[in-house]
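Predict fold of Carboxypeptidase-like regulatory domain-containing protein; 884 aa.
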Amino acid sequence: MKQFTFCLLFLFVTCSALAQGIRGVVKAGSGEAMSFATISAKGTTTGTIANEEGRYELALKPGQYEIVFQFLGFKSEVRPVTIGNEFLELNVTMAQQAINLQDVKIGKNTEDPAVSIMRRAIAKARFHQLQVKSYAARVYTRSSVTVTKLPMTFLYREQLKKAEKEANFKVGRPMLNETVAEVNFTSPNTVRQKIVANRNSQFDQVVPSNYYEANLYKPKLLGAASPLAPNAFSYYKFEYGGTFREQGADVSKISVIPRQWGDGVVRGTLYIIEDTWAVHSLDVETRTDEGFNIRLKAVCSPIQNVWMPVSQQFSFNGSFMGAEANGQYVRSQTFRSFVINPAFVEDIKVVDERFNAPPRTLTKGDVKSGTFADQVAKQKEFSTKNLKQLVKQYEKEEFKNRKKQDPNVAVVRDDSTVIDSLARKRSMAFWDSLRSVPLTQAEQVSYKKADSLVVVRTVQARTDSVKKVKTNSRGKNPLNLLFFDTNYKLSRKATLTWTSPINLESAYFNTVEGWPITASLRYNQRLDSLRQSQFSLGGVGRYQTGRDQFVGYGTATYQQKRTTVGLSGGRFVAQLNPDNPISPIINTITTVFFEQNFMKLYQKDFARIDLSTQPLDGRLTVGGSVEWANRTELTNFRESIKPFIDWNQFRYTPNRPATSEVPSAGFVDHKALTLNLFTTLRLGQVRYRIRNGQRVRLRNDDAPTLTLNYRKGISEWAGSDVDYDFAQATWRHSFDTGIRSRLAYQLSAGGFLTNRSVFFPDFKHFQGNEFFFQIGDPVSSFRFLPYYQFSTRSRFAEAHVLGEFRQLLLTQLTPLRLLGLKENLFVNYLATPASQNYTEVGYGIDGIIPAVFPFFRVEVVGRFQGGTYLGTGVRIGTTLKFGR
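Predicted 3D structure, encoded as tokens:
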């Protein structure tokens, strides 16, 4: 009882201590609300922003303050106030900023003044990024997403009613999430976050908002090329819009104009502070590949002479597959402590060497001869080139020093989140005292609906618990196992997964098995709390309706960190190409509706062991397998299978594919003992992110990979009939060639070193395609190559090149580019003894149905063999990967 009384008293004192300050409305001279205007107490680290309706609230301790009101394009207003023991009403009307076009003078030239300003701002961007050594701040974030339209709602009207009743989801109603957090940042990449309070309009549990700050000085902004990137002049033109004076600094207005508008670039306005060349504020927008418009507004204020973003507002709107939505993410932070990197004090001058040479130009030897502090002590003026060189040299030295202290320098972000036990239990009075940005009317309505749902859920939970006691003895309906996949949580670390034999995902058909009915059961046990050690046991059973037979196999897997060992064995069917080029879904469609049975299967009774490990922090993967199999060629389950649709130009083919290198792909029953070894080396820099103590390697799409593979057919052992040696090398690489433009290629070569006894399943097969719908990896797949036409037991060479272009032919037209269209050019090449230099040359367009099915593409492909033109065809494709 004493503890309870103490908690109440503490809460009362806390709320009372913050129960004074200022509140009011910020408007323009026209009476329009100044949405998300920035309000701060001059000389302190305390501030907030207004909401969409222009209303604001700022808690302050008793005393005298100068309150600064800021809004992009408007003159700052400074109001002196005296705070007592209650809130003071302070309404402000802001006037548009008067801009002087004559303030910036850069010499006798005709170049737009913005160009020289941006040269110096770009040269100093990295300098500003490294200025802050550490800080602690209280951060308020609020996200609000509203779905404004859904397609064909008549198909799921009942589900929408249920979603509104159970999850407070309704078209036109904001979905809110608010978070108040204590954030501690330490350079270069450590963020510690404690969630003090969290509230959302959908769920009863804490849904914390990750700390996200758009760094205004990084080369990427909103996922696009930043106006302050080192190569910004390749993407943008800049126009000077005048200068105004604010808080003792001259601020220049710069219009950011992309040379080609679309995804990958931004447009808008950037305000740069004269002499320091720091960002004062910005208002920019970009467009994503999916057709969403994203806008960022940011306002900075001086904290110990460093201009820091005190408020950022992100907004978006757009549509995807017929659904339309808009949303906002607002972040306001108040700094509690702030430490500047002593090496980056704002006391140097950047000179544009095109107009004014610095007193002394540094050579490469000068740059490397001393520390950054030594160079700054010798002179205070640097050219843009020298400053960038000095900062780069400083980072190299800092990297070496950090590596000596901690070899784990490959970590690019180390963050952790701790949730206060009271985060979800904060009272409305507590929220009103902490909320930096008042709620809008629509958001208040959404919370009221959410609060009423909490009451309903509480009552329902009690009712359900009573029902559970009464009905628990009945057990679960066994029929559920027949129609639904089920995941049973046996304990905190153990799960049992059942896959139903009757569901749409496994409704496959092929001419060998008919309609196979497949069910599986898998047990998984974690051996530690970090998911680094686990084992699993499983089994798959399958009834082949066409052959009236049961087949199946079992598996056992053990994983310890980066090493995995697996055992499997049984009787099952497999595609002749072990890479499974034909999806069961696609084969079902072609077989049932188009009378084309592309999938070719054989049966094997097998036992197999697999081993793989990833040393060198995952950069290297080494693995192998040994398999013994008794292989049997299969035939279609009936000689004359009646098609669902009878096509005159198509006929079902035997389960023996056509091939050119040998007279027949058929084979006698035989036994095969095979050894397969492989290693994959990922070159390039490896980087990691640590999240709550868990280290995760970041994907590097630009890193080239080299894969070596050796496969041997071992004769005479265990009755094995195969005898061959096969080796292959594959090199794959992709890299950006410009904004939203990319080049990817894959080169493979190899062959059979010996081929004394090779059966068709052991041949080298290729990723062909014979259906008009193209799936799979667009880089390494052929578009028209018959699946087994050029399978070989000899040598081969294979090359694939795919170029993705933001602008090529049709996308030169801005309206088409803004729809999200992309153009591709590709070449596929294959050389085997029988292929006669088979080549495909193609042109494709991605996003042929923008905003509805943006992942589809159409391709026109020309085919050549031995220098002879074979014809041109069309493929409809997708980048989505289907199960195989």
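The chain is about 15% helix and 45% strand.
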